[in-house]
Each structure stands twice: as structure tokens, then as C-alpha cells.
Amino acid sequence: MITIKNLFCILCALPLFLTGNPLLTNVINEFQTDTILGQKIELGLINYGWEIPLYGTIVTTPGGVAHIDTAISIPPYGFAVIDTSVLSGQFYLPLNNGYIQVYQQDYFIDEVRYSDTLHSPILSPPMSTSASRIIFIRSNNEPRIDWYIDTTPTIGGPNDDYPGCVIDGYVYLNNTPIAGAMVTANLYEGFQNPGSFYTSCTTYTNTSGFYSFDSLLPARYWMTASFGNHTPNGELTPILSALWPRRINFHFIGSEEKHLTNQNFSEAFSVSPNPSRGMMIIKCIIHDRDMAQNPSLVIYDAMGKIVRCFNHLSTIHHNGGLSSYQVIWDGTDNSGCILPAGIYFINLEIGDYRRIEKALLLK
């Protein structure tokens, strides 16, 4: 007997000139294993405007092999529900671990596996729920698929209630959780329609040093933590999943921020306009006695890489031992190349003093 697994192997082994149009995949859209409400599979394809007849479709589960014996179809841009009422043969989905394989000659082939083990891409749906799929289209037209548990199953209709993904964690200074650290999450890859999910967001740690982001896309995000006089700490996440929150902790080492003379921070260091479309004026007030410590003005990108250094600060005003300095940044790097839009960190260092300002460069 030829099983769906054997068909996968046979199709992969066929020479290219023997294959016709490629079979469609990603056709299993939702399923439930509930033995009371009924075990069901939903088949559907996004952006597919043709009817697909399902008569004769082979459906393989841990219960055995069955085939659709009823003249049903997947309508254009629609969905079809498969259960024992349209099947002949053996069909059963175990509650904790199982698989579904479907094959319709000349049309599609697909397989999903689910389990209740840690970090399973598809979790076994609890009773009265379903395992549902969502698809986002990336900028390069490739699909990004994520599975989630739907507490209000929509078998036969479009999937909804996708919760998005979660990133959380702690920020530490010398292994001690710190409050008030700024944490940002910025989408690292492009999507055509992110919908209501966040592509960029900022939060601050609470009194326990904890932060959390939700409603994120199933994608990679560049995470950055900033605190006091410390260089920003960045990390790229793996592709997120709604089923498994991702924990990202940040560790800083060093002393607390030291103040420069008695100047108020907002007066001592400023960046404007911010955001900017390519021209920012960076101003700072420095006591004359501190100039001997060789002030350093450096700009980092969101990944923590130095993109621009200013070795000379131009004096624009002097009064009573205090000098005002100004630098004009035109959005270029040290080579004169125009930098991409995004978040940058402007870092002023004078001896033990360090001040960081977050800047947003627009295009």
C-alpha cells in the first residue's frame, strides 16, 4: 500500500522533466482533536482563486488511511471541512501526539505534526479548542507561517484571534535587576502587511527589572537595552512563535551613571530635530576643566556597531568656565555613505561621564 509518506519520497525522487505543475502545499489550515465536538480538519489556501475538487483525496492519520468519498471541494479563496462524514477508511487524531497528511493528485500535498512537548511548532490543541495557522507575507513574497491555539475554533471559516508573539526578560547591572532601563524591539525583516502587530516598540523595566512586549509578528526582532552611562546592549532574536514566548535577558557591568559638573542633563546634551530626515544638531555643554579629558562623541547603530566618530567639537559659546559645543550630523557614516533609516545611539563620553541619546533617522 502506498502511504502519503511514500508519496513524499517518490515525488522528491522524480526527475524534474517528469513533474508537471508543482503541487500546492500549506493547505492544512486548522484542526481539532476534540472527541466530543468532533475531530475535524480544515483545508484552505490563501490567495487561490480556483476551485479544487477533493473527491479521492487521501487523508492519513495515526488512525489509518482514509479517502474523501464525497463530491466536495475547496471553493475559491474558501475552506473545506473534513471529518468522518465525508471519509471512507480509518481516521483518528490522538489527543497528545499525532500527524495529518493529505494528498490530492495534481493539486496538493501537505503534512503537519503536533505534540504536547516543549517547543513543538504545533501544540496539541486542548479540548474545545483548535490548532490554527496564520500566514504573513514577507517583502520578498515568501510566506511566514505560525501556529497558535484558538479558543474559539473557526472550522470552515477564516482563522482569527491570533495573539501575536511575546518577548520578555530582565535587565541586570552587575547581576542585580535594575528598574528604568529602556528596552526596544525593532522588526529585523520586512512584511507586506503587518496589520495591528508591532514592528517597533519601546518599554522600560519595572522595579523588578522586568520588561515585556506582546502582539509581535512571527519574525526576528533586533532587541536593544539602554541604561545610564552604559553602551547599548543589542541582540537579534530567532524567529518568534506565538506558542512559545522568547526570553531575552540583558547584562550590564560597571558603576552607576556619573554626573558631569552640576549641569542638568537636558541642558548638558541635546539632539535636535529628533526624529530627523538626515540633519541633526548635537549640542553639549562642557566645563573647561573637563576638556582635558578628551571628550568623545560616537554614534552607534541599533546593532551596537560604531558608524560615526567626531574627533573635534566646535565651540559656539563660552561663558564662565563653561563652553557650548555643536556638531552637525548629516546622517552619514565615517566613509560619507548615507546610513539607512532606523534607530541610532549618540554617545558622549568625558572621562568617567557618559551620556547616551536615542535618535531616529528617517528617510
Automatic annotation (TrEMBL):
<feature type="signal peptide">
    <location>
        <begin position="1"/>
        <end position="24"/>
    </location>
</feature>
<dbReference type="GO" id="GO:0030246">
    <property type="term" value="F:carbohydrate binding"/>
</dbReference>
<keyword id="KW-0732">Signal</keyword>
<dbReference type="InterPro" id="IPR013784">
    <property type="entry name" value="Carb-bd-like_fold"/>
</dbReference>
<protein>
    <recommendedName>
        <fullName>T9SS type A sorting domain-containing protein</fullName>
    </recommendedName>
</protein>
